[in-house]
Amino acid sequence: MEKIYAWVLKVTEAHLTKKKAIKATEKENRTVLSEVWGWIDALLFAVVFVFLLNQFFVQLFVIPSPSMVGTLEVGDRVLVNKQAYGIEVYPSGPKIFKGRTPDRDDIITFYNPDYVSKGPVFDVFAQCLYMATLSFVNIDRDDDGNVKEKLYVKRAVGLGGDTVKFVNGDVYIKPSGTSEFVAEDSYRSDNGLDSNPHRSLDADLYSSINARGRLMSYQDDGIAQANTPQHLIDEYEKIANSSQYYDMYQHNSAYAQAAAQNRPSDLSRRSAHAVYDRGIYVPYGYVLPLGDNRDNSSDGRYFGPVSTEKINGKVNAVLWPFSHWKSLV
């Protein structure tokens, strides 16, 4: 890294020294055209310098969603260390100087597994423009004009070899090399980890969420309402018109369980339910990222573990607004 820093410093000093010498020799013969070109040249150099700084050292990233509320607020500008886990040769490209992998609880930025690309040329150009303008210009938008989330920011909760299970919104971790699941809250307390991850949904709502998932399974299997347990209908009606957050992962788990029970001889259904029952295994070389605002986060519960090759940095601090400034190291 010291060699790269030294190279950037050397190039910058050489460029500025050359510009100073040219200005000194041309001072008496300066024209409007040369003055304009001088400003353009300086601007281009600044843009290139900022891009190189963002690509290889640190990058500003704007928090786009409420998934990390409690730790990072929507609109916060955070400083991302691009050298933390290796350096990308170009945006979204392969890494060099790889070594360290994320530690548990690191807040990381990584490429959205569900991102729909407009092509490699556009992706690289859009990312270069985003970085060169210090995150102020983002041309990567969907058909409705909304900024697409190419990068996600979440917390590294599960590491290689771990198994992470979700039961009624609560997280249980079976760390690598152990045989028992531990409640995340207890695990965090025992290991001195951050206490910011939190729940928003009332635990009492989960009986209704499970009821809704089971009822949808019955409906999709053509089971008549007359043959549906009344207590499930009663539970579902408690949230039928609710506008609160909804735990879709638990809904899907209840749906899969009911589907397997409806047709116990269907191996594919039993297998689908087993996925929720045994939890998510994190392969080595991967992490399971989760949002701190657990009940309002699209995260690893839905798209699974993320390869460390797709992680492009570690969030070190909140820089803006000043009222939110804090270090996250």
**How would you sum up the global shape?**
elongated
Structural class: alpha+beta
Can you identify the CATH class of the domain at 58-161 and 283-324?
Answer: Mainly Beta
The N- and C-terminal alpha carbons lie at a distance of 19 Å
Beta-strand content bin: 15-25%
Explain this structure to me?
The strands form three sheets. Strands 1, 2, 5, 6, 11, 12, 13 and 14 form an eight-stranded antiparallel β-sheet that branches. It contains nine helices and 14 strands. It is elongated, with a radius of gyration of 25 Å. The model has no long low-confidence stretch (mean pLDDT 86). The longest helix has 25 residues. Among the domains are: 146 residues, Umud Fragment, subunit A, CATH 2.10.109; 74 residues, no CATH class. With 329 residues, it is α+β, with helices and mostly antiparallel strands. The relative contact order is 0.15. A hairpin with a 2-residue loop joins strand 7 and strand 8.
List keywords for this structure.
329 residues, alpha+beta, Umud Fragment, subunit A, four-stranded antiparallel sheet, 14 strands, elongated
Which helices and strands, and how do they pair?
Layout: H1 2-26, H2 32-56, E1 58-62, E2 77-81, E3 87-88, E4 95-96, E5 107-111, H3 120-132, E6 151-158, E7 163-167, E8 170-174, E9 182-183, H4 184-191, H5 206-220, H6 230-237, H7 248-262, H8 267-278, E10 280-281, E11 286-290, H9 300-303, E12 306-307, E13 311-320, E14 326-327
Antiparallel strand pairs: 1-2, 2-13, 3-4, 5-6, 5-13, 6-11, 7-8, 7-10, 8-9, 11-12, 13-14
